[in-house]
Amino acid sequence: MPSRNLRSVGATLEHISPGRLEIAIRPNPAISQQHGFTHAGAISAIADSAAGCAALTLMPAGVGVLTTEFKINFLAPAAGDRIVARARVVEAGRTLTVAQAEVFAEQGGQERIIALLTATIMAIQNRDGVSD
């Protein structure tokens, strides 16, 4: 499901159900920015992947997905013991699907929202090199 290259940020698939998906990472120096917070690139990667994979859960077998656009708002620094992207499909279409991912930082059993992503995901069929 989640992209193989998400291994580079240490992402794990935490939950999957139709139209919903959760991906988490543990902050570490390899994915931190200059102030010690988890880098926006790593946050964007897990949020985009969660949204795309949530869309994929509603697609027929043999269909791939590609993000056509996304907007992300960073609401607070990504500081915590664990960062979790929880995505859900807002509207599923035959070709385009809109999904949202909320990203939370967990610290000491408490969660706070740190980012919100909205994405448009395109279904891809019968294209060489594109499969999920």
Question: Can you offer a commentary on this structure?
Answer:
- The chain contains one helix and six strands.
- It is mainly β.
- The mean pLDDT is 91.
Keywords summarizing the entry:
1 helix; 132 residues; 46% strand; mainly beta; 6-stranded antiparallel beta sheet
How much helix, percentage-wise, in residues? 10-25%
Q: How many helical stretches? A: 1
The oligomeric state is single chain
Molecular shape: elongated
List the helices and strands and how they pair.
Layout (H helix, E strand, L loop, with lengths): L11 E6 L2 E6 L14 H17 L7 E11 L7 E11 L3 E12 L2 E15 L8
Antiparallel strand pairs: 1-2, 2-4, 3-6, 4-5, 5-6
Q: Briefly, what is this?
A:
Helices cover 13% and strands 46% of the residues. The protein is mainly beta and 132 residues long. The protein is elongated, with a radius of gyration of 14 Å.
